[in-house]
Design brief:
The chain is mainly β. The protein contains 8 helices and 40 strands. The strands form 11 sheets. Strands 29, 30, 31, 32, 33 and 34 form a 6-stranded antiparallel β-sheet that branches. Helix 2 crosses helix 5 and helix 4 crosses helix 5.
């Protein structure tokens, strides 16, 4: 009687959808909200929730009595940040043609709008208390590799004054309270994959001059997500992963393959200061995502999107470690912290159970947590005895709130909400007693009706779910952020030992069989199932595996930052790329193995790239779509840039074609390939 409808648009690294899910043969309409960021305003009882999928900002009282105010946004939002006086919010998003919005937090009106760069991923605001009518706003343009510096004035228009180069994929940033430094985290490494010190970068900008210092994190540092600063601005804390690519991933136990970490950079000294691993020796804290400093500067609150929990790191103990490290220059200047905190554990881990725990903020002793896939907000209220007894080592406790993975399975959040924008009514969950002297009261509130996941949404959740992994160390997104590549070389066991291969993007993997660099898997369906078995060490039910397939098939191409825009707003090739296309199809002969529309002939070839670690010379022809974001290049990632691949690797030199190209023609060819 009814036709099943599923309309899904996945853009950049999130899904924006209006979906319909089927339960027992009936049709239920539901619009995903996707709470992706949150913050507390001047009134500590007012919570602001950025709902990515619904494209709206929600302002809601936590008293559970007042209806929320919901502001529709004209963009697909990614992150938000309060002005320091908390009278306004800066919100960024809109994909390739990025936009910054300024919203009045009191009236919930959009005051200003300005264009920024490609796929803005984060925003931070500096406002001097002595001159609150002006501010500096910094926007990370992820795929431009830049930061937009914007002057805001209450009386005049906003204007972008300069763009600073940040290197690859700036994913998060934060400006110090005094406005002197801007800390920018790049999500993935910028090196060739054969570099033994491959790792992500942190850039520290001197804001008055724009001068930049680059801090290269330790080898294997990747999949960075968020930045928080100590109250004095001395230390930057960055969530991320340490990939042990130098080891054969034959197990995950003990963090053998990946460990979850907080990287620490000394902003003043401009150096890598330390690292805090947030896993227990036997249980991983998969995929640390958002991080923030509590309003009293007593704790760092970390959201673990994969293991569905939050961590609290005790700042007095953290700073004690950092300030007393060898070579440390001076002590941190912080607000008074309880002396009793020296007896606390370094880290508390509190299970949440909700899927998609991506951000947590702590205000007036309460922790508010967003659950992206659940359309929920969680509230956690710690209760500490003073002093909390010291327990050596990392303290962990797991309770019974493990969340079912079945799309229509039993839910412990069984109280239904039917209205579209309900008050934020918190329902109690079982109290969690972590240890003697530390109790955590937990409650949850729905932002709307209970989400009913269709197969794409459920597959996306599974792709990010580290609770599926043995000891919850990692998920698919650990090595494939946004279903793309972590840039590292991994010696997977599916094609023998001793021949590492560069992690591949999963975009179009189902449309371009075979799978893996050597085509060892006949198709992506096989690769997905074997990946869960041999990398996460779990057998995934076929129904769930099909949902992961559906998610990966729904991935949409992100327009290249090399494209230019016509007067009507459509993205087109630049003049250089147009010249490069003619070479691609003609003189260079690239289209022979990379024919449109998928830009692969779906075959294996020997293109003269055999190295000492390879067992055979034949490799699957990869698609060139989105090649602008898949560096480093070749099966072992030996080339950092496309031009190096062509010139140094002589990748188009079949029958002497390379010698026929001038330097300018090679540049045009590269421009075209990177525009796909």
């Amino acid at each position: 009687m009814f036709q099943k409808i599923s309309i899904v648009l996945l853009f950049v690294f999130v899904s924006l959808s209006t979906v319909f899910a089927e339960e027992d043969g009936s049709l239920l309409g539901y619009r995903y909200l996707g709470p992706s960021d949150l913050g507390v305003g001047n009134d500590p009882n007012v919570l602001f929730v950025l709902e990515q999928d619904a494209q709206q900002l929600r302002k809601v009282d936590v008293d559970g009595q007042t209806k929320p105010v919901v502001l529709p946004l004209p963009i697909l939002p990614t992150r938000m940040s309060f002005f320091p006086d908390k009278k306004r919010l800066a919100i960024v998003g809109n994909g390739p043609r990025g936009v910054l919005l300024i919203v009045d937090a009191e009236t919930m009106n959009i005051e200003r709008r300005i264009s920024v760069g490609h796929s803005p991923s984060d925003v931070s605001v500096f406002q001097d208390a002595a001159t609150p009518a002006v501010a500096k706003i910094y926007v990370a343009n992820r795929f431009d590799g830049t930061v937009s510096v914007i002057d805001w004035n209450r009386e005049t228009e906003m204007k972008e004054t300069v763009r600073w180069q940040t290197g690859r994929e700036p994913i998060a940033l934060e400006v110090t309270n005094d406005g002197k430094y801007l800390v920018v985290a790049g999500q993935i490494p910028e090196d060739d994959a054969l570099d033994p010190d491959i790792g992500a970068r942190i850039r520290i900008f001197d804001t008055p001059t724009g001068d930049v210092s680059v801090v290269r994190l330790r080898n294997g540092a990747m999949n960075l997500r968020d930045v928080a600063l100590s109250s004095d601005g001395r230390y930057a804390f960055i969530t991320g992963i340490v990939g042990h690519f130098e080891q054969i991933p034959s197990q995950v136990s003990g963090g053998w393959t990946n460990e979850n970490a907080i990287f620490v950079v000394d902003v003043h000294a401009k150096e890598d200061a330390n690292i805090f691993y947030v896993d227990d020796y036997s249980t991983g804290a998969g995929n640390p995502w958002g991080i923030s400093l509590s309003d009293d500067a007593r704790f760092l609150a970390v959201a673990h999107a994969g293991s569905c929990e939050i961590s609290l790191l005790t700042m007095r103990k953290v700073l004690n470690v950092l300030d007393n490290r060898p070579g440390s220059k001076g002590m941190s200047i912080t607000p008074p912290l309880p002396q009793s905190d020296v007896t606390m554990p370094l880290q508390f881990r509190v299970p949440v159970g909700l899927k998609g725990v991506r951000h947590a903020v702590m205000s007036q002793g309460r922790i508010f947590v967003s659950a992206y896939f659940e359309d929920c907000v969680l509230k956690i209220v710690p209760e500490f005895d003073e002093p909390v007894p010291f327990v050596p080592g990392l303290v962990i406790g797991l309770d019974t709130l493990d969340w079912p993975t079945k799309r229509m399975g039993k839910r412990f959040l069984n109280e239904k909400v039917t209205e579209e924008n309900p008050p934020l009514r918190f329902r109690e969950l079982p109290r969690f007693d972590l240890m003697k002297g530390a109790k955590f009261h937990r409650s949850y509130a729905r932002l709307g009706p209970e989400p009913l996941w269709n197969n794409v949404r459920h597959g996306e959740m599974l792709f990010h779910d580290a609770q599926l992994c043995f000891e919850q160390w990692q998920s698919c997104t650990t090595c494939h952020p946004d279903a793309r590549s972590d840039t590292l070389n991994w010696d997977l066991l599916n094609d023998g030992q001793g021949n590492p291969k560069n992690s591949k993007s999963m975009f179009l993997s189902h449309e371009t069989p075979p799978a893996m660099a050597t085509g060892i898997r006949k198709d992506a369906e096989t690769a997905v199932r074997k990946g869960f078995e041999t990398i996460l060490f779990v057998h995934l039910a076929e129904e769930d595996a099909q949902d992961v397939d559906a998610y990966l098939k729904a991935l949409q191409r992100v327009p290249s930052p090399k494209l230019v825009y016509d007067t009507d707003g459509s993205a087109v090739l630049s003049e250089a790329a147009k010249r490069g296309k003619r070479l691609f199809d003609g003189t260079a002969g690239c289209a022979i193995c990379h024919p449109a529309p998928l830009f692969t002939d779906l075959s294996k070839h020997d293109v003269g790239t055999l190295s000492a670690g390879d067992f055979e010379p034949f490799y699957d022809t990869p698609t060139l779509l989105e090649s602008w974001r898949t560096a480093p290049y070749l099966h072992d990632g030996r080339y950092k840039t496309m031009k190096e691949l062509i010139v140094d690797g002589k990748h188009v030199n079949t029958n002497g074609r390379l010698e026929k190209l001038t330097e300018a023609e090679i540049d045009d060819l590269v421009e075209y390939v990177l525009s796909l």
